[in-house]
Specification:
385 residues, 2 domains, nine-stranded mixed sheet, two-stranded antiparallel ribbon, globular
């Protein structure tokens, strides 16, 4: 019943059926939305641990992914502070989170752009704002003396807490520049794991990239003041969800003669489905509608894992007398899908609570047989099916 009530509130007040975006202007719906994502980000780290136990993620990949998921959790925490007074009269202030109700279920890309701009000015804002204790004292005085709800003071405190979260850092930003982790090799051939992440502006989803690179340059990549900045700029310029992994890897391989991408992985974290908040089409919508799950369990999160691996190396001429190595990538051999997906393999998963999973298992809709299901029980344990 709670999920149905949430859905009615959002549909009736906030969703323009002609648009993909909607503003959460109801106080309780907004707070439930942030609590939902607080739980989901916590489950994601457990899913990563399960994938590590089954050999699908290496120890380094789990640590990297956990860091990005933790950053995403901090981002939602900061936004929850910013929009803590959603729906309350706070003067001329705008307190409405805009989310993508059709494609992703996540906040729209512009929310992260504004947050990044606010982070650059967090110190200045905090230096001109009263401290939390002073604001709380003023609230008590207004309640006792004027017998009024101190909404504007509450808003001021929520904004201070928002800027404090931004000041702490370690959030998931619209762009998270490449970082490098040494794996093995010291002399002629070194192997690194390069990772970066973006909030895809086309579909409003967080996306994580991991690339294993062999380096036979004269100077180790991590210390190369010329190649490493060029490498970072190149990768960020190619971090688009619409590009195939094959396109990204080949472009990198051709741009850097002494860097050899052996494995490229892309993880799409989402979309998030919720009968109360989103309007996606397809089987998951019907599953969540039939599940009638209680508050906190009305959701499902899709997870797409694309992997491209090098199959062999060939040599090409470079200049008059030189040769360079070029990677030949293995594409999905089944039904010729490799050429379409641009990946060696693509695996899809869905993370969801027990009740929606039970309905999904009963319905068994077409296309879900090959989808891995990570089921979260009330105690937080994750089971893989």
């Amino acid at each position: 019943m709670m999920a149905v009530a949430e859905g009615t509130a959002v549909a009736a007040e906030h969703v323009d059926l002609q648009k993909d975006h909607a503003g959460l202007t109801d106080l309780f719906a907004s707070r439930r939305y942030f609590r939902k994502f607080e739980g989901i980000t916590g489950h994601l780290t457990r899913v990563a641990a399960v994938m590590h136990a089954s050999g699908e993620l290496s120890k380094d990949e789990v640590e990297i992914l956990t860091t990005y998921v933790q950053g995403l959790s901090y981002t939602f925490r900061a936004l929850s502070m910013k929009y803590l007074l959603t729906g309350r009269d706070a003067g001329h202030a705008t307190t409405t989170l805009t989310m993508d109700t059709l494609e992703s279920g996540f906040p729209v890309f512009n929310e992260l752009l504004v947050m990044a701009n606010d982070a650059q000015q967090a110190d200045r804002h905090l230096s001109t704002m009263p401290g939390p204790d002073a604001l709380k004292k003023q609230m008590v005085e207004q309640i006792i003396s004027a017998r009024e709800i101190p909404t504007r003071l509450q808003f001021a405190l929520s904004q201070r807490l928002y800027y404090q979260e931004l000041q702490r850092g370690h959030l998931f930003w619209a762009q998270n520049d490449p970082q490098i982790l040494w794996l093995e090799g010291l002399d002629e051939r070194r192997r690194y794991l390069v990772h970066w992440a973006v909030y895809d502006s086309q579909v409003n989803l967080p996306t994580v990239y991991l690339m294993e690179v062999e380096d036979d340059g004269r100077t180790p990549l991590a210390r190369d003041q010329r190649r490493w900045p060029e490498c970072q700029a190149h990768l960020m310029g190619q971090a688009l969800g619409g590009l195939k992994l094959l396109t990204i890897a080949r472009g990198f391989d051709e741009a850097f003669d002494d860097l050899h991408p052996k494995r490229l992985r892309r993880l799409h974290l989402g979309p998030m489905y919720s009968h109360a908040y989103t309007r996606q089409t397809g089987p998951m919508r019907d599953v969540l509608a039939d599940a009638r799950a209680p508050e906190g369990q009305d959701w499902a999160l899709a997870w797409t894992d694309e992997v491209l691996e090098s199959e062999r190396v060939k040599e090409e001429r470079s200049g008059w007398f030189g040769t360079v190595e070029r990677e030949v990538f293995a594409l999905d051999p089944f039904s010729g899908r490799g050429a379409d997906t641009g990946a060696t393999r693509t695996e899809r998963a869905v993370i969801l609570p027990e009740r929606p999973y039970q309905v999904l298992a009963e319905r068994n809709p077409p296309g879900f047989t090959s989808v891995t299901k990570y089921v979260v029980n009330p105690s937080g344990r994750v089971l893989r099916y």
